[in-house]
Amino acid sequence: MMPNPTSNQACAQSEEPSSHPLIVFFSGLELESSSNAAQGLSISRNFLSPPEPTSLQTIISWPDSQLEACHEFIQLLFPLPEPSDYNPNAPLVDATVFHAFRHSAQLRRQLRLGFTRILSFYGFRFAEASATASEDADSASGFDLVIEHAPNFPQKSKCWLRPANHHHLRITRILRCLRVLGLEAEAQAWYAALLDVAHGSSISRRSILFWTRAATRPLWITPDVADGQEVLEEGKEFLREGTEIQVMPSGVQDKGAS
Questions:
Q1: Which residues, 6+ apart, have CB-to-CB distance to 182 below 8 Å?
Q2: 215 φ, ψ to 5°?
Q3: Share of the chain above pLDDT 90, in %
Q4: Do 196 and 208 contact (CB within 8 A), yes or no?
Q5: Which residues, 6 or more positions from 237, have their beta carbon under 8 angstroms from its beta carbon?
Q6: pLDDT tens-digit profile of 113-159?
Q7: CA distances to 17, 208, 246 from 114, in Å
């Protein structure tokens, strides 16, 4: 089913050059150092000499120790429509970004690069068949993704496979971001892998609840909202409408793109 005329119009608009920092960032370009998004990383980049450019490739090339130490990159690499209390300078997903990702396989591929890096950080990887398929296809293509333990999972999981730590919040954010920006298959594959690990572990029921909400709720309902208290926030209508808009395969929306 093709998107309705309204979403086609949004597609046409999103194909025009955009100065939105998230589209700039996921297009593989460097953010201006004076931008709020770049400054949001300044706290953890002060020790870098010389300072590194704020780009997707820079962040995914960081060693695990830097991904652990920096608490501001996660809001840029996995953005949400909701503001972060910890990093208020982080750019937010709005209707423009939402529709751009749904109509651009290239933007989704860039997001998948960041997700692949964070999988490695947590000790996961795409199963061989899934990794091969994801290089040439897209979430909209319908293949079954499988995420499994990497050989170094016992070592890598030590940072998060324990009660009450900030990585559980990061995981909730990542699951929600993947779904909001069109990587539903990746989100569901990782959620399944996380549940397989979490049950019977020391991870709290609350963390598992938030992961479940992030992976299963309609996009317009955030994981922190209690059941029965769901209210559509002003300005978030695009998330509700988006449940009826399918992600367009790469051969459709990126025809002719490099």
A1: 101, 102, 108, 111, 139, 140, 247
A2: -90, -20
A3: 56
A4: no
A5: 220
A6: 999 999 999 999 999 766 555 554 454 444 589 999 999 999 999 99
A7: 22, 23, 22
pLDDT digits (tens, 9 = 90+) for 152-199: 999 999 999 998 889 999 999 999 999 999 999 999 999 999 999 998
Distance of CA 20 to the CA centre of its chain: 17
Retrieve residue 2's tokens: 């093709």
CB within 8 A of 25, min separation 6: which ones?
31, 37, 54, 55, 56, 76, 91
> Looking up tokens 């870098």, which residue turns up?
48
**Distance separating alpha carbons of residues 222 and 237, to the nearest angstrom:** 13
| CA atoms in the 13 A half-sphere facing the CB of 236 | 17
Are the C-beta atoms of residues 150 and 176 closer than 8 Å to each other?
no
Amino acid at 207: S
Question: Which token pair is 143?
Answer: 């293949």
